[in-house]
Amino acid sequence: MDILENQNEIFPKGEKASAEYFTGTAWVNILVPKDETGSYAVGNVLFEPGCRNNWHTHPAGQILIVTGGKGFYQERGKPARLLVKGDVVVIPSNIEHWHGAAKHSSFTHIVITNNTKNGAVKWLEPVTDEEYLECHAANNPKPVKINLTEAAVRNHAELFPDHVSTLTETDPELIEIFDNFAYDEVISCGNLDTKTRVMMILASTIASKALEEYKMFVNAALNVGITHMEVKEILYQSVPYVGIAKVVDFIYTTNEIFTDRGIKLPLDGQSTTKRETRFEKGLELQKDIFGETIDNMHKETPKDQMHIQKYLSANCFGDYYTRKGLDIKTRELLTFSMLTALGGTESQIRAHIQGNINLGNDKETLLSVITQLLPYVGYPRALNAIKCLNEVTTK
After folding, report:
1. Cα 241–chain centre separation
2. Which of 15, 211, 373, 383 lies in the 20 to 30 Å Cα band around 28?
3. pTM for the whole thing?
4. What digits encode the pLDDT tens for the residues 300-346?
């Protein structure tokens, strides 16, 4: 729920901008180099939250076209101008100015820069913290007081240290309700440790196609000690249950986050089967989890549908469940989380409830998972999962 003001990027980020001319991190992608006459160039600039460039001038002016996020433009001696998607700034020649992102929002704009024999830009001194914060004070309304419990503040800070949501300014009542519920009442219920809880929520965001919330929880996962290998294995585990069409955007996003954190890709391989052994190993693991149910299912499956059962053994279990990086109990719990978030999967939920119980994930653990997912998947899906849990455990 607590998210930065993100936007869909139109162009790749490009190269990191020079720290000599930027406070914070910015990325520059040159879209059109200088033309044959050297008269202009076009680029895309992405400022991360809190980043701004130095005071500078352009001998022949510049045009900014804002494509996402929230930022500021200021000319020397004048008030700062708040910029949002769709705004256009025409910067006169030789005017001292700066532009960059707001504190809690990324900011992207296209620049069209005129070039002269004197160059395209003359860099000056950095924008001071006082100058930068003053433009926020002038453009932001008076903060609304939000009454959060000590537990909500503490638990939120554990996952997202130093993060302040822009929604506290635009939707303070909602943030107060949600944060007190999700980060105090819900977290205090059940028997899951922090890492397991975050893993289950992360898996549910994939199944819910909630990409922005997923970005938040990938960073939360890494903040609480979940390894980058475990994050990738959660992603891979989701493919046979959610489908690659829904998962592919999450893979690209994860790779971007890992790259930004300096994590080298690809990660070490985790497969334990080969083409010749995947069916045998997958079927063996299926039977370890579900017992004689698998044999009965094969006997009852019509001949023209038997290939699907073979796919389940070789692909779903042989290719994915047998991988290293996560133990089987965790994988089965992750599957339960994904099925709960997907909705309309009650038959599969019942089967995997039994599988979880067979592996030692008892009713209390499964109910704890449902409880932690409740703020993210909603009451209908949570209540459907509880109904399945009661049916299976009663039998």
Report:
1. 19
2. 211
3. 0.72
4. 999 999 999 999 999 999 999 999 999 999 999 999 999 999 999 99
Segment 245-261, tens digit of pLDDT: 999 999 999 999 998 88
Q: Do both 218 and 247 map to the same domain?
A: yes
333 plus 377 within the same structural domain: yes
Token code pair at residue 158? 């554990």
Q: Amino acid letter at 385?
A: A
Whether residue 266 is preceded by a cis peptide bond, meaning omega within 30 degrees of 0, is yes
| Residue 312 located in a structural domain | no
Q: Residue 8 domain-assigned? A: no
309 closest CA partner among 336, 282, 337: 282
pLDDT in tens, 220-246: 999 999 999 999 999 999 999 999 999
Angle at 225 between CA 2 and CA 188, to 5 degrees: 55
Is residue 132 located within the same domain as residue 156? no
Residues recorded for the chain: 395
**Which two three-digit tokens encode residue 238?**
């989701």
Residue ranges of alpha helices (H) inside 244-362 are 244-260, 278-290, 293-300, 306-311, 328-342, 346-359
- Where on the phi/psi map is residue 77: left (φ > 0), alpha (ψ -120 to 50), or beta? left
Task: Say whether both 378 and 265 belong to one domain.
Answer: yes
Regarding whether 97 and 67 lie in a shared domain, the answer is yes
pLDDT in tens, 340-390: 999 999 999 999 999 999 999 999 999 999 999 999 999 999 999 999 999
Give the model's pLDDT for residue 39: 63
From residue 130, alpha-carbon distances to 49, 123, 346 in Å are 17, 20, 57
CATH code for position 351: 1.20.1290.10
Residue 141's pLDDT band, with cuts at 50, 70 and 90, is low
Number of domains in the chain: 3
HSE of 308 in the Cβ direction (CA atoms, 13 Å)? 7
156 and 259 housed in the same domain: no
Q: Give me the domain span that covers residue 246.
A: 194-270+323-394
Q: Same domain for 121 and 219?
A: no
